[in-house]
Amino acid sequence: MPLAPNVHDAEPIPEAARAEIDRLLQSGDLFRYNAAADAPVTLLEREFATLMGTRFAVAVSSCSAALFLSLKALDLPRGARVLIPAFTFAAVPSAVIHADCQPVLVEVGANYRIDIDDFAAKLDTGIAAVLISHMRGHTSDMDAILALCAERQIPVIEDAAHSLGTLWHGRRIGTLGAIGCFSFQSYKLVNAGEGGMLVTDDPDLAARAVIMSGAYEHNWKKHDGLLNSFARWQNRLPLYNMRMQNLSAAVIRPQLPEIDRRVRDGRANHDHVAVRLNACPWFDVPPPLPPETRAPDSIQFNLVGFESDAEAVAFQNEAAARGVSVQVFGLSRDNARAFWNWQFIEGPLPDLPGTRAMLMRACDTRLPAKLTRVELDLIADALVAAAEAVKGIETRAYGT
16-257: which CATH topology? Predict the structure, then answer.
């Protein structure tokens, strides 16, 4: 049996980063505010804002930090109710709680997107803000979401950790709401090990986020275009010290020109495997919504006709035996994407039957952009063979 491809290692960091990293190591100049101007983090913020077409970008230590600072920048009252999808990573409700707010979970359908009927119903229950998580790069109906929130003057934050490079009606995801948040963690499109970014066109939100991220005393003067807003908030906000440091920026900056190529290759890989899986009667890969141009680095699919949890677990094990790691979200022990494991949220567990049913049969496997067509076919063959082994029915006639 051929060896399964390595889907865990990221692409090598571009060689262009090496000279800058060596310079920083020689100088010891790692703190973003040491330089009078044009520190690597400052340059990254300018370049990322240009890439996204936004007025401001604020580099921070993680996407979780960006989400937290976004909520704090909105100046929500203590205990404010924040609507989030029930299918997301545990860091999202955690950020809401860290911001002294209360997460309110909304149903997610079998296509991994927000149930708009449930969203509309819960939006009128005293919601102060909406945090949309484009989980695993799947974009919910942002036209409907933004329209409903605009009618009620409710701000929208986008968690675009998995969606750098995704477009909605040709606009970059992360620029549709009041604030967009991105991740540079190792499994994301741009890899710095850790790191995050928030973007906005609102100078007050940007200034508040900059100060709270840790721009103490007059370090905020080293950020572009915000002097009036900074003067308003100086010494009036707590400092959380969530800054990015220069080594991270040095690793990230040379990867920005690689984004378009990685998006193109990742989408081609995803779509190739999706065709293979959708040809098998045991799988369903939901299509993108019409306005959405995806930038995937993994694939999610639903098991069809797997009536018992035991069958779904058996499929997971059969795939692993063939060298392909698959997690069924709801059946992977202590999975941080299963809402019933978020026991840190106060109050009773919400009744979310649609999301629960989806998570019990929704599968996830990585498909990094660097994979070759041969490697992609090995993954698809292993998944189909694993389903065949569990169901005991020959399905190759349905495939390619």
Answer: Aspartate Aminotransferase; domain 2 (3.40.640)
